[in-house]
Amino acid sequence: MSNYLFIESRGAFESATAPAFFSLARDLAQQGSKVEIFLVQNGVMPARAGAKADGLSSAIQSGIAVLADEFSLKERALSAGQLMKGIKPAAIGTVIDRMADGWKVIWH
Amino acid sequence: MNNPKGLTFAFMEPPFESARGTTMFRLISEAIRGGYDVNVFAYEGAVLMPFAPQKQHANAVHGRNEAEENHPLPKDWVAALLAEAGRRGTKLDWVNCGLCVDERGAGEAIAGVRRGSPADFWKMAAESRNTLVIGTH
């Protein structure tokens, strides 16, 4: 089984294909792969507690770890305390770490 | 994989357009700081990132002269990344897609950037530990 890092840069508010991207992440996780989602740029906007963006909540509920780029959060005046339960701020270096560890890293 | 410390990135984002360019530069910077040898294959509009004739300008709307405006230029960020890799003893191999360069008349790249083709990307990816492709919608 491979490990996958899904990088979401837009989110469902901006891209109609974001829910399908999250759906693919869920499918891979359900098949036994280790999957993480890294939100970056406008992709962090649906991470706000109370946001109703398609796909993200169900990804969290399926057990996928969801990380949000600290820099993108700062740019948008979002703090860790304002995020949906299950989403943690993370450094951009997470992407490099996963690449170095051989994860398949996919950008959307 | 010939280089376990090699990471390859391909991207097509033109300068002055979207946050993807900034994220791309942040990823490259982080990889260099982490001691990795970094390959970049810039294609389509991304070949203009290291375009040497980029110039700062004043901004009359802001009421600022050129120095006050201090407009950031992507070519300077590419140069800074090349210099940082040199200081750290790692490698930043920035390859501009030749066909994309010719289409855009973007042949005047800063020093340290070389011209190549998708075959270079294939070789970079094959020799690297991992590859990330950042496309543009």
Plain-language structure description:
The complex is a heterodimer of chains A (108) and B (137). Chain A is an alpha/beta fold. Chain A has a single domain, classed as Hypothetical Protein Ychn, Chain: A. Helices cover 31% and strands 23% of the residues of chain A. Chain A has 4 helices and 5 strands, in the order βαβαβαβαβ. Chain A has a 5-stranded parallel sheet with strand order 4-3-2-1-5, sandwiched between helices. In chain A, β1, α1 and β2 (34-39) form a beta-alpha-beta unit. The longest helix of chain A has 13 residues, at 18-30. In chain B, 39% of the residues are buried. Chain B has a single domain (6-134), classed as Hypothetical Protein Ychn, Chain: A. Chain B has helices at residues 19-33, 66-69, 74-88, 98-104, 118-127; strands spanning 6-11, 37-42, 92-97, 113-116, 130-134. Chain B is 37% helix and 20% strand. Chain B has a 5-stranded parallel sheet, sandwiched between helices. Classes of the chains: A alpha/beta (108), B alpha/beta (137).
